[in-house]
């Protein structure tokens, strides 16, 4: 069995869960690499990554390169004498980095590869109405999410599960997958299998404002899946129009209610406690939303202090 010296690379909360598993399992983490601090907000205060916060708290050796090809960074990385690198939710690595360790560099991806390669696999699996997903470890190569698969673990997507809930479930599954992968590598039992592309590959494209906007002409179930697939972040949104007033509204939670009706698509129907938006063959019953300048709130709480005319439309 090889004694592994591990460098871990990652940035967001999902990656922290995996790094914590390495620490809790007494893996020899000789270095942690994460994104540089970034100024944000009105005061341009420096924001640190979740992985940096964890590394500092646990007194792990930390590197924050701005350029992964920089000679000084490569020299410092080499000095750590890692023989295995673990990558979770980080950026694309240059060949000089991923080829450096003796036993390779592997990535944990939150889908069952080759399906949902890309930046947002958890979100797109729900948006597309999948009922199964999982995590995959694979050795990194020169392309994005295409390397030879070491192992995969599968789980279900429940009918009402949100991206946030699935994120947490896959993080736990990912902890198991990474620890198992390290054991395979250490015992020379990692036999990676080349990914086989299929004619029906689905991609996990980066999320942006345009593909998070709700199309009220889509099928009700599609809209419902979009809302839960973007909740709690980055969140599905729409525009409410009531006469001369217009608001950009985030919708965090809704229920799909198939029902025959005579309302025009996008019509916002409210009572003192409920808000329903008419779609083809039913309504989206909005349960949690956010108006500009207000906090996220339950619909009943919003309607307690805000009224809408019968001509209000979601567009």
Q: Would you write up a description of this structure?
A:
The protein is of the alpha/beta class and 315 residues long. The chain folds into two domains: 6-186, Rossmann fold, CATH 3.40.50; 210-314, Methionyl-tRNA Fmet Formyltransferase, Chain A, domain 2 (Roll). It is built from eight helices and 18 strands. The chain has helices at residues 13-24, 50-57, 71-79, 95-98, 121-127, 163-186, 220-229, 299-303; strands at residues 6-10, 29-33, 38-40, 45-47, 62-63, 84-88, 105-109, 117-118, 132-139, 149-156, 203-204, 236-242, 245-258, 268-270, 275-279, 282-290, 297-298, 313-314. The strands form four sheets. The protein has a seven-stranded mixed β-sheet. Helix 1 packs parallel to helix 6 and helix 5 packs antiparallel against helix 7. It is elongated. The model has no long low-confidence stretch (mean pLDDT 96).
Trace the largest sheet across and list its strands: 5-2-1-6-7-9-10
- Helix run count: 8
Question: What is the third-level CATH name, the topology of the largest domain?
Answer: Rossmann fold
Question: How would you name the CATH homologous superfamily of the largest domain?
Answer: Formyl transferase, N-terminal domain
Number of strands: 18
N-to-C CA distance: 60 Å
Please tell me how large the radius of gyration is.
23 Å
CATH class of the largest domain: Alpha Beta
Q: State the secondary-structure class.
A: alpha/beta
Question: What's the average pLDDT?
Answer: 96
CA-based shape: elongated
Order of helices and strands: EHEEEHEHEHEEHEEHEHEEEEEEHE
């Amino acid at each position: 069995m090889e004694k592994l010296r591990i460098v871990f690379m990652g940035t967001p909360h999902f990656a922290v869960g995996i790094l914590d598993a390495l620490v809790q399992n007494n893996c020899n983490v000789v270095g942690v690499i994460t994104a540089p601090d970034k100024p944000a907000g009105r005061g341009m205060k420096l924001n640190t990554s979740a992985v940096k916060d964890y590394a500092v708290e646990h007194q792990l050796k930390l590197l924050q390169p701005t350029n992964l090809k920089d000679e000084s960074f490569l020299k410092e990385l080499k000095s750590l004498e890692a023989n295995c690198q673990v990558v979770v939710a980080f950026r694309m690595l240059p060949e000089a980095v991923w080829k450096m360790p003796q036993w390779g560099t592997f990535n944990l991806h939150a889908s069952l590869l080759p399906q949902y390669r890309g930046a947002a696999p958890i979100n797109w699996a729900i948006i597309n109405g999948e009922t199964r997903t999982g995590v995959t470890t694979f050795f990194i190569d020169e392309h994005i999410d295409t390397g030879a698969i070491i192992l995969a673990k599968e789980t279900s997507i429940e009918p009402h599960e949100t991206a946030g809930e699935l994120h947490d479930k896959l993080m736990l599954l990912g902890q198991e997958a990474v620890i198992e992968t390290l054991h395979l590598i250490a015992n020379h039992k990692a036999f990676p299998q080349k990914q086989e592309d299929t004619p029906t590959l689905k991609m996990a494209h980066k999320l942006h404002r345009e593909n998070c906007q709700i199309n009220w002409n889509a099928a009700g179930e599609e809209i419902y899946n979009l809302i839960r697939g973007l909740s709690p972040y980055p969140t599905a949104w729409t525009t409410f129009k009531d006469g001369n007033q217009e608001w950009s509204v985030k919708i965090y939670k809704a229920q799909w209610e198939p029902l025959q009706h005579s309302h025009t698509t996008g019509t916002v129907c409210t009572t003192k406690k409920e808000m329903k938006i008419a779609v083809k063959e039913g309504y989206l019953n909005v349960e949690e939303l956010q108006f500009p300048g207000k906090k996220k709130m339950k619909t009943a709480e919003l309607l307690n202090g805000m009224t809408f005319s019968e001509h209000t439309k979601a567009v």
